[in-house]
C-alpha cells in the first residue's frame, strides 16, 4: 500500500473537543450535580465504557431507536460482541446484580458522570458522543422515592440558577394497565397506518406507546386525539401517581402533567418525567429525562427489582447556562507571572514559581528567554494580576520587584517575603 502521507485529521463526525472555556462550564454543571446527589445520599459509580452488546439490547430494549440504529457495536479481537455505552441505566443495573447489591440496604442509590455514545444525526445539542450525569435508585418502589429523584434533578437546575425550565410528568402505569390500554391505542392509529412512516409503522406493532411521542410529522397529526394512558390506569396505579404528585407538592416542586410523555417499553412503569425549557421547541431541548423501570432488572436476568432514575445531558445543561447568561466566567491563567532578567535569574525565577505554587498561589514563568519587555507583554496578555521581575542585579541585593498588572504600580520587596506577600494578596483578590 502506498503511504497516504499526512492527513488533515479532524474529530469524527458528531463529536467535538471540549476546549478549556467549555470544559469549565461543564465542570460547573457536574460540580452542582454531584453536590446535590451527595445531599440526597447517592454514592458514585463508574462502569466500563463498553459492555456486552446484549446487555443494552435487553436493558434498553429492542424497538428503541438506541438499540435499532444508534449503538456503536463491534466484535473485539476475541470475538466478543461489545457496544460502547449508549446510556447509563443498563450498566448500573448490571453492576447492581453482579455485585450482589440486593443484599445491601435498599434502595441502593448510585450516581454517575459518563460519556455516552449514539450514532445519531448530528445537530445542535445532538452529538455522537455526549455526557450524562445520571442517578439510579434501585430496590424500592415508593412514591416518595420517585419524588426525591425528581427533586434532585430539579435542584441541580435550580442551584445552577436556571430559570426557564419546567418539569413534565406522567404515569404510564404498569403491564396490567397497558393490557387494557394498548389495544385501544393501536385501534386509534390503525386506520392511519398507510399515512405514517415505516419506522412508526414498525413501532405500532412492537412498541405502540412510542407513537405518542414520535417526532415524525407524518405521525403527529394523529397524536392529539389518541386515547391517554392516564385515563386507563387501574386504581392502584392512579393512587401511586397521585401519591407521587402529593410528595412533589410537599417538596414545593412545580410540574406540568403531560399525558403524551412515554417510554414505550414493558419494563418502564409508572412515573416518567422530563425537564425541558419553558419555551420548548425543536427536538433536542430536553435537558433531563427519567422514569421508573420496575421490570428492567428482571429483563437482564435478575429477580424482580424496582428502580427509578434519570439521565441529564451535560452539554445541553451547559448550553442552557450559556443561553441564560449564567455560565461561570472563564477561569483566567495564573495569578502571578515571573519574568527573569540576566545571568542566574532564570533558575531563581523557577525556584520562586515553585515556592508560590507550593503555597497555593498559581504561578508560572514567561518562558522562552525573551527580553524583559517581551516577558512583561506576555504577563499582561496572560491575564495574570501580578508580574514578579527577578533581575540578576536585584538578586544580589536579595530583592525582587512586584508589578501590579492592573494598576502598573511597582514595588521592591525582599525575596524572603515575596511568597507570603503574594500569597496574601492573591487570597484577598479571590475574596473580591
Ligand atoms: P432525545 O429525545 O433528545 O433524543 P432521549 O430520549 O434519547 O433524548 P435519554 O436517552 O433519555 O434521551 O437521555 C437523557 C438526556 O441525555 C437527554 O434528555 C438529553 O439531555 C441528553 N441526550 C440524549 N441524547 C443526546 C445527544 N445525542 N447529544 C446530546 N445530549 C443528548
Ligand atoms: Mg434520542
Structural class comes to: alpha+beta
Give the proportion of residues in helices: 25-40%
Query: Biggest β-sheet: count, sense, barrel?
Result: 8 strands, mixed
Number of strands: 16
Strand content: 15-25%
User: Average pLDDT, to the nearest integer?
Assistant: 93
Number of separate structural domains: 2
Task: Give the uncertain stretches in residue-range form.
Answer: none
Write out the CATH superfamily name of the largest domain.
Bira Bifunctional Protein, Domain 2
What does this molecule look like?
The protein is an alpha+beta fold. It folds into two domains: 20-173 and 233-323, Bira Bifunctional Protein, Domain 2 (BirA Bifunctional Protein, domain 2, 2-Layer Sandwich); 336-424, 3-Layer(aba) Sandwich (Rossmann fold). The chain is 38% helix and 20% strand. It has 14 helices and 16 strands. The protein has helices at residues 20-39, 53-59, 65-70, 89-98, 143-159, 175-189, 198-206, 235-250, 296-299, 314-323, 345-358, 372-382, 392-397, 415-431; strands spanning 43-44, 50-52, 73-75, 81-84, 108-117, 129-138, 165-171, 256-257, 269-277, 288-292, 307-313, 336-341, 363-365, 386-391, 399-404, 410-414. The strands form three sheets. It has an eight-stranded mixed beta sheet, sandwiched between helices. Strands 13-12-14-15-16 form a five-stranded mixed beta sheet, with helices on both faces. Residues 87, 118, 120, 125-127, 130, 132, 284, 286-289, 311, 313, 315-316 line the site of adenosine-5'-triphosphate.
Amino acid at each position: 500500500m502506498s503511504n497516504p502521507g499526512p492527513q488533515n485529521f479532524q474529530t469524527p463526525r458528531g463529536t467535538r473537543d471540549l476546549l478549556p472555556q467549555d470544559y469549565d462550564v461543564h465542570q460547573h454543571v457536574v460540580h452542582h450535580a454531584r453536590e446535590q446527589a451527595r445531599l440526597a445520599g447517592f454514592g458514585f459509580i463508574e462502569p466500563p465504557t463498553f459492555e456486552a452488546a446484549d446487555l443494552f439490547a435487553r436493558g434498553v430494549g429492542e424497538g428503541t431507536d438506541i438499540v435499532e440504529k444508534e449503538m456503536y457495536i463491534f466484535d473485539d479481537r476475541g470475538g466478543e460482541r461489545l457496544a460502547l455505552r449508549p446510556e447509563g441505566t443498563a450498566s448500573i443495573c448490571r453492576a447492581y446484580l453482579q455485585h450482589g447489591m440486593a443484599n445491601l440496604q435498599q434502595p441502593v442509590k448510585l450516581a454517575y458522570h459518563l460519556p455516552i455514545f449514539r450514532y445519531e444525526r448530528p445537530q445542535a445539542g445532538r452529538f455522537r458522543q455526549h455526557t450524562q450525569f445520571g442517578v439510579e435508585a434501585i430496590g424500592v418502589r415508593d412514591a416518595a422515592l420517585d419524588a426525591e429523584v425528581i427533586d434532585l434533578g430539579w435542584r441541580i437546575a435550580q442551584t445552577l440558577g436556571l430559570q426557564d425550565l419546567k418539569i413534565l410528568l406522567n404515569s404510564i402505569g404498569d403491564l396490567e394497565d397497558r393490557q387494557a390500554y394498548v389495544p385501544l391505542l393501536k385501534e386509534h392509529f390503525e386506520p392511519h397506518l398507510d399515512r405514517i412512516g415505516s419506522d412508526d409503522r414498525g413501532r405500532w406493532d412492537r412498541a405502540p406507546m412510542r407513537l405518542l411521542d414520535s417526532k415524525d410529522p407524518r405521525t403527529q397529526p394523529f397524536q392529539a386525539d389518541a386515547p391517554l394512558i392516564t385515563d386507563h390506569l387501574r386504581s392502584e396505579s392512579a393512587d401511586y401517581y397521585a401519591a407521587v404528585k402529593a410528595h412533589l407538592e410537599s417538596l414545593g416542586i412545580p410540574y406540568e402533567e403531560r399525558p403524551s410523555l412515554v417510554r414505550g417499553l414493558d419494563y418502564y412503569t409508572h412515573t416518567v418525567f422530563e425537564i425541558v425549557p419553558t419555551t420548548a421547541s425543536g427536538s433536542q431541548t430536553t435537558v433531563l429525562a427519567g422514569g421508573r423501570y420496575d421490570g428492567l432488572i428482571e429483563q437482564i436476568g435478575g429477580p424482580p427489582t424496582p428502580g427509578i432514575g434519570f439521565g441529564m445531558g451535560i452539554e445541553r445543561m451547559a448550553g442552557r447556562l450559556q443561553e441564560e447568561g449564567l455560565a461561570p466566567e472563564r477561569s483566567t491563567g495564573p495569578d502571578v507571572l515571573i519574568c527573569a532578567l540576566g545571568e542566574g535569574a532564570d533558575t531563581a525565577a523557577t525556584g520562586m514559581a515553585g515556592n508560590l505554587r507550593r503555597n497555593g498561589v498559581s504561578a508560572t514563568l514567561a518562558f522562552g528567554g525573551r527580553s524583559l519587555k517581551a516577558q512583561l507583554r506576555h504577563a499582561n496578555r496572560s491575564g495574570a494580576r501580578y508580574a514578579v521581575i527577578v533581575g540578576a542585579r536585584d538578586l544580589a541585593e536579595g530583592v525582587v520587584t512586584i508589578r501590579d498588572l492592573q494598576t502598573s504600580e511597582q514595588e521592591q520587596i525582599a525575596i524572603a517575603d515575596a511568597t507570603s506577600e503574594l500569597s496574601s494578596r492573591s487570597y484577598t483578590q479571590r475574596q473580591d
